[in-house]
Amino acid sequence: MNKSLLTLSLIPIASVMHTYGTSHVPDNRPNIILFLVDDMGWQDTSLPFWTQRTMYNERYETPNMEKLAQQGMMFTQAYASSISSPTRCSLMTGCNASRHRVTNWTLRKNTKTDAVSNTLEVPDWNYNGIAQVHGTNNTFIATSFVQLLKDNGYHTIHCGKAHWGAIDTPGESPYHFGFETNIAGHAAGGPATYLSERNYGYDEAGNSTSLFSVPGLEKYWGTGTFMTEALTQEALKALDKAKKYNQPFYLYMSHYAIHVPIDKDVRFYDKYKKKGLSDKEAAYASLIEGMDKSLGDIMDWLEKNGEADNTIVIFMSDNGGYATGSGWRDEPLYTQNFPLKCGKGSAYEGGIREPMIVRWPGTVQPGTRCNDYLIIEDFYPSILEMAGIDDYDVPQEIDGISFVPLLKQTKNHSQGRSLYWNCPNIWGEKGPGIGPSCTIRKDNWKMIYFYETGEKELYDIPNDTEENNNVAALYPQIINKLSKELGKFLRQTNGQRPSFKKTGKPCPWPDEI
Amino acid sequence: MNKSLLTLSLIPIASVMHTYGTSHVPDNRPNIILFLVDDMGWQDTSLPFWTQRTMYNERYETPNMEKLAQQGMMFTQAYASSISSPTRCSLMTGCNASRHRVTNWTLRKNTKTDAVSNTLEVPDWNYNGIAQVHGTNNTFIATSFVQLLKDNGYHTIHCGKAHWGAIDTPGESPYHFGFETNIAGHAAGGPATYLSERNYGYDEAGNSTSLFSVPGLEKYWGTGTFMTEALTQEALKALDKAKKYNQPFYLYMSHYAIHVPIDKDVRFYDKYKKKGLSDKEAAYASLIEGMDKSLGDIMDWLEKNGEADNTIVIFMSDNGGYATGSGWRDEPLYTQNFPLKCGKGSAYEGGIREPMIVRWPGTVQPGTRCNDYLIIEDFYPSILEMAGIDDYDVPQEIDGISFVPLLKQTKNHSQGRSLYWNCPNIWGEKGPGIGPSCTIRKDNWKMIYFYETGEKELYDIPNDTEENNNVAALYPQIINKLSKELGKFLRQTNGQRPSFKKTGKPCPWPDEI
After folding, report:
1. Which residues are paired to A455 by β-bridges?
2. Domains located in chain B, CATH noted
3. A111, B175: Cβ pair inside 8 Å?
4. Separation in Å, CA of B161 to nearest CA in chain A
5. Which chain A residue lies closest to B5 (C-alpha atoms)?
6. What ipTM does this complex have?
7. Where is the Sulfatase N-terminal domain (chains A, B) (predicted)?
């Protein structure tokens, strides 16, 4: 109760006051934009995250990512899960995928999305996703950082892909996680199409033609507006509104791009054809540049509206670039994230290492590069720290660690720290490193353990970014130590593992073999 | 598109499991539906709330209200403010209008809606409405009971009219007050039109033609669906969804009906023409019956879905029936709420006494009638008590008192209690009891004090429901006592009063004259 507030009879309130509780301090908290791209590989940009420029850096044109990097800090070892839902659920909960158990992608209620194996049974994972309330089986209950931002006075905007919970479960709606505005987000993890000519997946009568039809963009149907652009225009309108509210805002700009289907963004397609790319690869490049233009438009909005100095922009992708099929790409399989091995769905670097940039005027030194590692669940405490929220009580245990010290260059929080992945699932496509596995990264070492075969691979990542040299046989003590640590973490977090169909027995933990 | 969709393995899972966290108790909390009608008078129904049947009870047909009353308790002295925003802000905050200061209707930011007076200056009231956060001038900050329901695991649905905050202020959006679904609610307090032929106020290009254009009903444009029906269909879809979430739900079914414009609901219009009503009055009656059908459809949904026994239904209106203009009605002015005097906007009973019914299976004795009084801010603690939420910490001081004891017939909480109204504003229409005033009701007595003239009127309400006999001159001691109590309350709650333009001095409080 706060009666004192009620005695403010004739107070000419200069705007942007933060008067929660008993304090009457101006609200100078930063706006925060998380610009999350879908299925974007580490090399799908003209901005080199590797030590060398690659042919991909030459091919793609992402001038706004370059500009953002000039204004902020690039992270060369930013990790996520190799699949969308695990990453996005870690983002929202602050929990490692081993703990939240949403270890494959979600869509239909009570329906696993795993491919069928003759030998392995996947565990009873949380195929219904995350939710904010109890009441639904196979769901992980958590309070999102977005809810905490909202509860602390942030205006919260969701634009684009959500993909946190199955259809007809509470986790399907961004509104249930603290978002106050939702543009086009729902249960599905990809778009039926980016094309307004196809009404983003709705027929002429306005009926959805697919579970992946993108809702809420009716006004752009038939207008020739590529969906990336439609989302951007809607996001800018939401920012206009946010400015009027005199609240700090959180914009989750979560593009459906560059997830398949790889439709042509005709604004950019011809340019890449002229560069000599195939139809498929030119379309892919056009999807990337359309996304980059959106980033530029948002940065322009910040400048024009006087919010640039007080807005943190975080750029990130949710998993590696698509590298396992010939339907959408012409490049040789598994090479599209070079120098990283394989891509989306793989335990190798191509599946999990992401392009990440953070721009934070006055705090992050422009044009800097951080080679320390971090992982997607770190975003939860980091964003809350950016917003000045350090006192919160949530039902889940937070695994993430704030990377703000890396931004401020006050402390290397990755040194001596272990990162963990757990994927007891069978994703639908095949390729190197795809299949049930768990992984640990500690300092230079990365060990992958494959549940089915019991095989362990060990890589010295900084010196073998390409993961060409498995040195497991050379370092049995390292293997032993990492196996113990990984096994301990998985058990501590109630991680899951597959079992053998033949015997019904669970696959061994990494430290049991 | 995700190819692995083709390889889905189907897992039948029993639903309604609580599998996480520390508690595993079934959630048996009741669903709650607040069915709020706009501008509906006490007599706009076939259900007699007075001791006698009137011609209005004969004229209108509201079979579903009758059914609801058979199943629950009718309240014959349920009060609200005489204008929409004050009532709705009291509902959401639990505060008396004197405290929240949203004492006239809201629409544009920083814009008073008061009529101009040559003699009085209205105070600097909260014309920007209520909000959940600081940052906007002339706004009352509160945490709504809906937010508390949501925070406690209720799924919260808004359908229809909101009208809590001005355009471009945080209070404009139901999502900012804890609603997780919003159908057609925004800043405006009325509809441009109920007609789908006019796209509810949008032109053919989809552009809004009025600040009162009703958003979010695009799919009904041009379909011949009267808006009351469109809202009902959307509400039922939201209930279907709510059932899947396995959460208790709160549905705020807040009809735009029967606010002007009094469009014909052709499903019912002819029937009333055949009864001999004029075009205007037949249209008015059709608006009422369309609203009543919506109530019936929702009650049917409860039955069909097995939720009837566990759902509380509260029927209420937000202020008196429209009685001050000839543009929309043919009845003689000020008579339409007979036996109550005047209507919407007036301090007399016609402005503030509402038709109210509560159906609560197992708790409320069916077919009962409660003659004790209550007021709109009582809904806040009452609904929270119904939901079992008794421990909450909110920034505002709650003036309301739970009416659950009246429902349970365990205690008459109105005996000896005073109800208060404060309206230092000048509503746009003229009529008896309309103008800056404050009012107190205590036991049988009701005293109205008019700020401009200093006049006081006193009525013995149960014995003079029509307010024909002002007995102020006969009971100076009662006047004195009530004036003191009213003045004290207004000052304690930081109430506002108009001032005289000539002198710049405030009008006296009721106990200063």
Report:
1. none
2. 27-411 (3.40.720.10)
3. no
4. 18
5. A113
6. 0.91
7. 30-389
